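dumping this here so i dont lose it again. seq + smiles for adenosine-5'-diphosphate
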Amino acid sequence: MTREKFLLEKKVKEAILESQNKVIMVLGASDTGKTTLIEDLLGFLLEKYTVGVVDADLGQSHIGPPTTIAWAIFQRRFESWKKAAVKDFYFVGATSPAGCLLPTITGVKLMSDMAGQVTGKVIVDTTGMVGRGAGKILKICKIELIQPQIILALQKENELEPILGNFARMSTPLIFRLSVPSFVTQKVYGQRTSYRERKFRDYFNKSQKVALSLDKLGSKNALSEDYLYHRLVCLKSREGKNLALGIIDEIDEEKRKISVYTPLDKAEEIISIIPGKIRITLEGKEIY
Ligand SMILES: Nc1ncnc2c1ncn2[C@@H]1O[C@H](COP(=O)(O)OP(=O)(O)O)[C@@H](O)[C@H]1O
Ligand SMILES: [Mg+2]
């Protein structure tokens, strides 16, 4: 399907292509076209660069499952987000940065640095949380920590100005304000939830149940929380690598066993289980 493209001024495109402007951050409220804009950027950047895209949108993820900040490498041609080569992810454990600001910012920094080590360009997609409170502080801190050379700011009115104003008149980042094109549509009620469910469902589609010994896991304290049944968890390796997500099926205190559904096939690598904030079914439905 062909779709309309973002019209970028020549100076914006040139700045984006400039090799010194390595890190590009895309800001905007929900449904302002951030992810679609990134597809268009990949369209011309991939002719010259290998590009790492960091997806910091926890709820409406395109790279990796929701609740994670993942990054993927793109070479030569953008086909689809589904086919993206996911290189690594950081587990935040929630579908919104609200109440998880520190894990969110930690994840964005770690994933951007990783992407920057092996690619010539890094694009950071962000969450739509840009309001005056926590969203504003999160975005300002993200910019200060990641130090992008370019910010592409998609706004309908002036909703990003409280964030952008902090960087006014500074030589970096270069800020380009873009208006939201008319082809970008607002998602209707329920569309976000169903998108998220589908992403979880796809992720856990080929899961198997693995049983682990509670005594061999290095995360006994973390697993003493309430409501562990159906809890979304992150499975980690001895090296501290995030291996995959899982859903707790059962904990048998007597047999000292925990069973988890996960698409990971190398269960022997799991040495730690980190609980997230949400509980879900294998079909991706959140349990409240
Ligand atoms: N060029 C386009 N043509 C048609 N629909 C579009 C186009 N770009 C975006 N959309 C629609 O607008 C919505 C929001 O765009 P998206 O890039 O996902 O925004 P954001 O990443 O800011 O949430 C999408 O759900 C998509 O259906
Ligand atoms: Mg998006």
